[in-house]
Amino acid sequence: MKKNTFESPYAGIGREGNTAILYGNSGSYSVIISIENPVLQYSADASGYEHFQSLLCNVVKLLGEGYLLQKQDVFSRQRYVAGAGNSIMQTKYNEHFDGRSYTALSTYLVLTRQVKKGAFYTYDKAAFLQFLQNCRKITDLLQGAQLSPEILDEAAVRTYVSQLSVMDFTAAFPSLNNIRSGDEQLSIGPVALRSLSLVDTDRIDLPESVAAFQPRSDEGSLRDFPNDHLSFLFRVPDFKTIIYNQVIEIPSQRMTLSK
User: Fold this and answer.
1) Which of 16, 30, 176, 254 pairs as cysteine with 112 (C-beta 3.0–4.6 A)?
2) Which DSSP string do the residues of 52-106 spell out, in sequence order?
3) What total number of domains does the chain contain?
4) Does 186 fall in a domain?
5) What confidence tens digit (pLDDT) does each residue in 42-82 have?
6) Does a structural domain hold residue 190?
């Protein structure tokens, strides 16, 4: 089998003030924003799901056409490390769970300004400044919604890209390994990696609208409990890392309607 060198789709990382810009090989540029998930898993807060859905719609409206929005939810198995509490009772409570395995969730928004495909790339200063302004508007919007947004700096971007490359969010310093391509999966050392699409792109059969959550009812006392549509990801057995990547492309309306 022919051996190919793994090449990153990113040309490099630049800085504009305190903002780290991730440049793509095609000329696109991106910013990565970490946010806190606003809805707790068992909060039973239906309004929280609806508010977050409305918030994402406002983010899309602020960006406008020519942008790509990615929401990446990273599920990783971690070991709980007990910290000192503010009382003896709290400290003993923390120690009771020390070393136990749990699922950690981290959420990132990736804002990408796309370039026209198939065209010779030319730098557009006005479009770049507009991109930076849109990033500031979105961070202000997320801050107002109490999502604690933080634009990743250069060091954090490099760490995140390295973690994505090896699908390892547990090690303090992720190390790269050989990648073997198989018929159904990639193998990174002893780890198996698969990519599964939840939407059949060959057959677009989606409902006109989707609720922000689904009510869950079990036998017993649980009835109409607000539940995330993807809550089953927390219950996937024997996994190390799961990345749920949602992609929203905002095309030019004129070009789309003319097709």
Assistant:
1) 30
2) HHHHHHHHHHHH-TTEEEEEEEEEEEEE------SSHHHHHHHHHTTT-EEEEEE
3) 1
4) no
5) 888 888 889 999 999 999 999 988 899 999 999 999 888 88
6) no
Q: What is the pLDDT of residues 165-217, one digit of tens each?
A: 888 888 877 787 888 888 888 888 888 989 888 877 677 677 777 888 888 87
Beta pairing class for 241-250 and 67-79: antiparallel
Task: Give domain status of residue 226, yes or no.
Answer: no
Range of the domain at 89: 10-175+238-258
Q: How far is CA 49 from CA 61, 120, 122, 183, 237, in A?
A: 19, 42, 41, 38, 26
Q: Does residue 180 lie in a domain region? A: no
| Spatial CA neighbour of 78 closest among 52, 99, 49, 94 | 99
